[in-house]
Amino acid sequence: MKRILVAGSTGYLGGFVCRELKARGHFVRALARSPEKLAPLRDSLGEVVEAQVTQPESLEQVCDGIDVVFSSVGITRQKDGLTFRDVDYQGNRNLLDAALRAGVQKFVYVSAVNGTRLRHLDIVDAHEAFIEELEASGLDHTVVRPTGYFSDMSGVLEMARRGRVWLIGSGTNRVNPIHGADLAVVCADAIESSDREIAVGGPQTMTWREVAQLAFEVLDQPARVTCIPVWLMWPVVRLVRVFNRHQGELLAFFTTMATTDVVAPPTGTRTLEQQFKGRTGMKVEDLSQFGKPLGMPKKAQRKMLGIVLTALREKFGLLGMAPFFIKLLAEQRRIRKAHPDLVAKAAEIGPEFAKNLVVLPALFNVTARRDGRELAYEFVKDIFQRVAVHSMPAIYQIDELVQCEGDRFENFKKFNVAMFEAIDRQGTWKSDSIVDEGDRLRIRVVSCANVELFSAIGCPELGKLGCEHDLAGYPLILDRMDAEFRRPCALAKGGDFCDFNFYRKGTAPPTEHLNK
Asked: Average pLDDT in the 367-386 region?
């Protein structure tokens, strides 16, 4: 048994690596900036350390007693203004320094295939610069170079679901992506390997056109594929770089990878067809949203901003939006000043909750002074119902959830149990019972911070927004999970508790049991 530190444990590959190492009898110490995201892996971890690779002082003792460091740390979406150089290079360099101080025996690092030929791209250059440091350190190491992950292919399936797949270039370049579980086996083998580099891909090599065609076949839809000429893409890349260097470099990376053969020696057994059909061995516990408290995913937050702006433009017109925003900001300041204790209580639950406790009442109050409370509530409710179209599928990670192995309704129940338990720990809601009756999952919520705090701040109507969101959002996902939903009682609408009832499709009570 070896003691192994896994950095990047909350990412797509990291979770599979933790499970594979645990299955082989190793002790796994997971490093994470947000340990709560590791809840789905709790059975595979010996220890969790909260640290950030970009903050070297937080890494002082993370490698103590460790034999091997594994890192798949890298940044895709820009966070806190960090660049590829800050994370992919310097973050891993900080981790290497900690490993050297602690006398670690080996460092296993995940980069990208063909990296040495792609150093004109910022994201690749940052990885390769770290590999140079790793080689110069004298520490035993192995660099694993995959072609790409199955998770990268989900975008093609999503485009196909919307009716058209957009490809860059001719679509004739080849790729053999690999599933995370198959790649985790390679990474675990690398711990004992004497190879300095391992290039690896999945068992199938396909052109991008064939990937798109497969997506349409799985969905049983006519194939509609449009190719964007390469000569058009590069000017777009240069333009995006001017306004956002990070996004421009990501677009340059995707353009390069789509117009270059990205093929490495095949390994593994999982195919892309199985991935698209949901038969890859992926479990519901593998999903990144599994075990997370209820919250608006970032993608849905961006959609919400667009929906709010559209709703305000429709209601007030372009000329009326400026004075409205001035009033909105003033009202937010008034709320913070008048209710510091309530804002502080909301902040204990989470920053998003605290933000909503100020923004939503401000939006409601400013609108109510103009139109009255009843119309103001209808306006805010309409916004929440529009947002639910995007947020509910994102909260449940529905496109991935339907692909997990096993019975869909059973997976839906597991997801809900883990989410409600996380919500309970967070303090947004409090449940007094979670009962699994086979074809029915019943969850009884006896207190709700939304209802309590919105009432205390003078806007009791807003406590009902979560109910309105659910009633608009659940119909979008229930059919895909072979489920039905009933909530005959709700705290926000005068009930003594909220009764969430999830039924297997076809077993719910008659429609006279109205949802609230």
From this structure: 91
Query: CA quadruple 105, 148, 76, 125: dihedral positive or negative?
Result: positive
pLDDT at 74 over 90: no
Burial class (CB in 10 A: 0-12, 13-18, 19+), 318: exposed
At residue 219, what is the residue type? L
| Residues 31-50, mean pLDDT to the nearest whole number | 85
Q: How far is CA 378 from the centre of its chain?
A: 31
CA 386-387-393 angle, 5° bins: 115
Burial (CB count within 10 angstroms: exposed 0-12, middle 13-18, buried 19+), residue 92: buried
Element (H, E) at 274: helix 272-277
Contacts of 502 (CB under 8 A, 6+ apart): 412, 413, 416, 440, 441, 442, 443, 483, 484, 485
Lowest mean pLDDT, pick from 17-31, 44-58, 313-327, 334-348: 313-327
Tell me the residue ranges of DSSP E strands in 13-133. 27-32, 47-50, 68-71, 106-110
Q: Percent helix, strand, coil in the chain (nearest 5)?
A: 55, 15, 30
Could you give the angle at which helices 245-258 and 122-136 cross, rounded to 10 degrees? 90
- Amino acid, res. 486: R
User: Quick one: which of 106, 171, 151, 421 has its CA closest to 276?
Assistant: 151
- Torsion over CA: 185, 188, 192, 195 (sign): positive
- Per DSSP, the three-state class of 468 is helix
pTM as predicted? 0.66
Task: Report the largest interatomic distance among the alpha carbons of the chain, rounded to a whole angstrom.
Answer: 73
Phi, psi of 502 (to 5 degrees): -110, 120
Under 8 Å CB-to-CB from 304, ≥6 apart: which residues? 296, 383, 387, 390, 391
In 292-435, where does DSSP find H-type helix? 298-338, 340-349, 351-371, 373-395, 398-401, 408-426
Q: Which of 167-176, 210-219, 272-281 has the lowest mean pLDDT?
A: 272-281
Q: How far apart are CA 247 and CA 259, in angstroms?
A: 18
| pLDDT tens track for 202-222 | 999 999 999 999 999 988 889
Mapping DSSP to helix (H, G, I), strand (E, B) and coil, where does residue 494 land? coil
Residues 308 and 464: their CA atoms lie apart, in Å, by 18
Q: Are strands 47-50 and 27-32 parallel, antiparallel or unpaired?
A: parallel
Q: 67: which 2 tokens?
A: 């034999």
Q: Which residues contact 468 (CB under 8 A, 6 or more apart)?
A: 381, 384, 385, 388
